Amino acid sequence: MSMHTLKTISITAILILWGINAAFADVTVFAAASLTNALSDVGKAFEAAHKIPVKFSFASSSALAKQIEQGAPADVFASADTKWMDYLDGKGKIDHSTRSNLLGNTLVLIAPQSKGFPVTMKKGFDLAGAFRGKLCTGVVESVPVGIYAKEALTRLGLWESIQPRVVGAQDVRAALNLVERGECDTGIVYETDAKLSKKVEVIGRFPADSHSPIVYPFALVTQSGDAKKFLDYLKQKPSAEIFAKYGFKLLEQ
């Protein structure tokens, strides 16, 4: 067998192996914790429709952004606020041309089921005097839900009185869990997370003008063709129906 023939066979084998690997390549999505249930369902629907596996890593947007900055192998990033998408955008870590704000949410005050208390979400209300224990939310310096919470409490004139009793959790699901277990008498989370739990009740909704709009920007981190297919799928009807089922506001279709 000639060297030319061997070389041709080798190249053909490499191309076949590359094709096989590409066919089974995963799309890796780094997404905010509040998207866990909805995006997991979207991922299953996408896999069924396109036969392309999707892997998810859910955590706080801040933690995920730092991981991507350090080279973590993400194809798509979905943040719970624009701050951390801006952070990666400014460092050239995402494809800016693919960035879009797809979803919105509502900020709510929760309490353990059957342990709620009357609240009025407006200036002048004595929130600190309405309960005795701790208030759980995300870390107010970095986790999006905590950032929104501090902003809302500040605009309503409630932050200074309640700040010593605020407990910062690593992400919104951790804050929700603390309220579910009764370790915090109240908490500030997204309405979509509160709806998933039978152990908490919503006792108040923050006015939309008390904080920056809660938006979820999505963008590609890599130039993967399969990742682009997934990002496009997020804007299609099957995904929209799933997001709506979980209570997200649809900003772009």
Automatic annotation (TrEMBL):
Compartments where located: Cell membrane
Keyword Nucleotide-binding: no
Primary localization: membrane
GO BP annotations listed: molybdate ion transport
Recorded GO CC terms: outer membrane-bounded periplasmic space; plasma membrane
Keywords: Cell membrane, Membrane, Metal-binding, Molybdenum, Signal, Transport, Tungsten
Residue numbers binding molybdate: S34, S61, V172, Y190
GO molecular function: metal ion binding; molybdate ion binding
Family annotation (PANTHER family): MOLYBDATE-BINDING PERIPLASMIC PROTEIN (PTHR30632), MOLYBDATE-BINDING PROTEIN MODA (PTHR30632:SF17)
Subunit structure: The complex is composed of two ATP-binding proteins (ModC), two transmembrane proteins (ModB) and a solute-binding protein (ModA).
Task performed by this protein: Involved in the transport of molybdenum into the cell. Part of the binding-protein-dependent transport system ModABCD.
Family under the similarity heading: Belongs to the bacterial solute-binding protein ModA family.
Protein name: Molybdate-binding protein ModA
